[in-house]
Specification:
Number of helices: 8
Structural class: mainly alpha
Largest sheet: none
Distance between the termini: 12 Å
Shape: extended
Radius of gyration: 26 Å
Helix content: over 70%
Strand content: under 5%
Length: 212
Amino acid sequence: MPGFAFRQRPTWMRAVAPLVLAACVLGARIVPACSQNPSAAEAKQQTIAQAGQPAAAGSQQDPPPQAAPEAAEPSAAHIQAARELILATGISRSFQIIIPEFMDQIDGTLTQTRPELTNDLLAVMGQLKPEFDKQADEMIDLSARIYARLLTEDEIRAILAFFKSDAGRKYVGAQPLFLNQLVAGMQAWQQKISVNMMTRVREEMKKKGHDL
C-alpha cells in the first residue's frame, strides 16, 4: 500500500544536521519570549483597545514605556572562546562542506551541456576555492557571536573543556558516521510511519462508511 511521498532532503538540510545535533547536546538555555509574554500582535490589539477606552476620572496617563537597554556586546575573549567551541564541536564542518558542494553543482551544470569547458573550469574552481573558503569563515564568526550572546564566557569554556577531552574528541569524530546512519534510519522510519498512518486512516474512515 503506497504511503505519502517524501522528498530527499536538500543539500543545505544535510549540512546543518550537525548544528541540530550540537544544539541538542548543549541544551536549550533561552526560554522563548512567546512563552512568557504576549505576542506582538496581541500586544498591539491590547494597546488599540486601551486607546479606544475613555480615561477614568482623575486618572493620570501612564508614562510611555522605556526602551529595554541593549545587551552589552560580548568581549573579544568571549567571542574567541565561542569560536573555539564552534571548531571543537565540529559545527564548522557544516559550513565548510557547502563550498565544494556548490562548486560540484556548478561544474556539473556547466559541463553537462558544454564538456569542452571541463579543463578550464577545473582550473578556475581551483583558483577560486581559497577565496570562498575564507567566506565560509564568516559563518564561523557569526555562529561564535550567537553562542557568545546565549552563553557566558565561563559556560562556553566549561563546554569547550569537554569537547577538548578525549571523550569529547571521540564524540565529534563519531558525528559523521552517526548522522549518516541516523538519516538512513529516519528515512526507513518515515516510510513505515507514512504507510501505517494511511492504513489506520483508511480503517477508521471505512468504519464511517468511506472507502479510500
